[in-house]
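Ticket reopened. Same input as before:
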Amino acid sequence: DAKTTQPTSMDCAEGRAANLPCNHSTISGNEYVYWYRQIHSQGPQYIIHGLKNNETNEMASLIITEDRKSSTLILPHATLRDTAVYYCIVRVTSSGTYKYIFGTGTRLKVLA
Amino acid sequence: EAGVVQSPRYKIIEKKQPVAFWCNPISGHNTLYWYLQNLGQGPELLIRYENEEAVDDSQLPKDRFSAERLKGVDSTLKIQPAELGDSAVYLCASSSGDYNEQFFGPGTRLTVL
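Engineering reply: fixed in the latest deploy. New output:
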């Protein structure tokens, strides 16, 4: 199974861009990368996903390297409400079915 | 539109007792997931349903855990008997398609004494 490696924690100043890295060196060609975040005592919330191309939505941008072995989630202007655990997830496909494998995530703290 | 509803939000039981969790997914979502989340860890899939069919239950400890989604809508996850190590948050999620985002409920925090 493809797995992800993320830093345990990061700090970011409010109003600055938060860049959250993720390594997924064993990812296969048809496996998507998803990002979710989890604010304390809530269920995870979807942010963005991609396969090969960079993606952008109203919440964030996802930059995937050409070899697809790593990616970076960018929150362009972090706010205090962005403080959460961010999970980089690979959608693994096997034997005709799929599974989302969460890691331990990066605990992002946005500082005032 | 209501999100994924789970109940109860908190449950405290003694070991060896049974416990059940209920989930009502977002209307129209045919895929339903149950996850287990231990403290400080990411969610781990227990079972995934496509409508009423359990298409992936490989991580469900079948000796004590069971789940059902009889009419392809709401679902129940049961543990019988509960063990101390089952203390965790049980999350339910739903989605409308294979690649579509999952919407998570707030979870049920189980404490086994």
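Chain B touches chain A at residues 4, 40-45, 48, 55-56, 91, 93, 98-99, 101-107 (CB under 8 Å). The CA atoms of residues 31 and 97 of chain B lie 7 Å apart. Please confirm and we'll close it.
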